């Protein structure tokens, strides 16, 4: 998986997530520029993690009604490598699982690539200047 889950200290609640692309990509450099850091190791995880409210997910109740093709189309449309399966619990929600394009492609013996998309002005600038994310 290319996503790390951030939990509370006793690991009973899911709080946020950290994407590998954020740790290895432009988000770290954007934080370094904004915070005026000179070294990557000054950037704390809390600066690059994504709040769970901003993470796309499939409702656990819908999973038994969607096909693998539907999941792949959704992941492709979101331009992600995976999507979480979540279930509401009161005012919060919990992770029940995760679909990964890598795992699905490997199991089906197919090739499935997701094109990265720029989501911030910094990432757009990187695409223009360097032709990649």
Question: What's the arrangement of secondary structure elements?
Answer:
Blueprint: E1 3-7, E2 14-19, H1 20-24, H2 26-35, H3 45-48, E3 50-51, E4 57-59, H4 68-78, E5 82-89, E6 92-100, H5 101-108, H6 121-130
Parallel strand pairs: 4-5
Antiparallel strand pairs: 1-2, 2-3, 5-6
Structural write-up:
There is one protein chain. By secondary structure, this protein is α+β, with helices and mostly antiparallel strands. The chain has a single domain, classed as CBS-domain (Roll). The chain has six helices and six strands. It has helices at residues 20-24, 26-35, 45-48, 68-78, 101-108, 121-130, and strands at residues 3-7, 14-19, 50-51, 57-59, 82-89, 92-100. The protein has a three-stranded antiparallel β-sheet with strand order 1-2-3. Strands 4-5-6 form a three-stranded mixed β-sheet. A hairpin with a 2-residue loop joins strand 5 (82-89) and strand 6 (92-100). The mean pLDDT is 83.
Largest sheet: 3 strands, antiparallel
**CATH class wording:** Alpha Beta
Separate helix tally = 6
The share of residues in helices is 25-40%
Tell me the radius of gyration: 16 Å
The oligomeric state is single chain
N- to C-terminal separation? 19 Å
The structural class is alpha+beta
The beta-strand count equals 6
